[in-house]
Amino acid sequence: MTKILIVDDEPLIVESLIYSLEREGFQVKGIGDGSLVLETVRDYQPDLIVLDILLPGLNGIEVCKRLRAESTIPIIMLTARGDELDRVLGLEVGADDYLPKPFSFRELLARIRAILRRVEMDRYYPPITDIAIGDLHLDLTAHRLLKKGAEIVLSAREYDLLSFLMRNAGQAISRETILAQVWGEEWIGDERTLDVHVRWLRLKIEDDPASPQYIQTVRGYGYRFIGAEEIG
């Protein structure tokens, strides 16, 4: 059974998440003090951590930094403060995703499942640590994307989609295959979801999103990420 650790100093949030996640089939443990996280992780061995930024004992940013020094356990950060600085700082110290409070349980659940699916995807593919195509460098260990050395911040879903496309660079992939591999059970039948995320990725990675070099549309079929050998 997949184990999740909730770290939040608001008892009602912890109790609610434990109840709701257990109903979804997860094993869940909750704690409210940042200074207890490292010891709890060693004992409990969670598959994913939901970590609040504002914690007594040790704040979530510092906890995340220390966890990343010894572990690659996926981390979703929560905070009552929705400003961009918190989000960027959390991602820079190694968080896999970020969710501002208040949030819906369904959104958190979707992000948890997306990250766990990505972890399974990483296990399925050959053990490579990075992919470099053109000006793009995708670090599969740190889950970071660099373009000409500068980091591009991606959402969890954008990372999953880009990782899947780059792992299969040079191959045309059907829309159905992409949706099944990247969205899985969360896809609700609207293929425009894929098109929207491709558009967002193009805005972030392409020099000219209107004339994309990296993510190519295969009309009537799906998408194709350009192969490394095709870059001039």
Brief descriptors of the model:
232 residues; alpha/beta; Rossmann fold; Arc Repressor Mutant, subunit A; five-stranded parallel β-sheet; four-stranded antiparallel β-sheet; 8 helices; 41% helix; globular
Can you walk me through this structure?
This protein has helices at 11-23, 37-44, 60-68, 84-92, 105-124, 156-167, 175-183, 192-205, and strands at 3-7, 27-31, 48-52, 75-79, 97-100, 130-133, 136-139, 144-147, 150-152, 172-174, 215-218, 222-225. It is an alpha/beta fold. It has two domains: 3-122, Response regulator (Rossmann fold); 127-230, Winged helix-like DNA-binding domain superfamily/Winged helix DNA-binding domain (Arc Repressor Mutant, subunit A). The strands form three sheets. The chain has a five-stranded parallel β-sheet, sandwiched between helices.
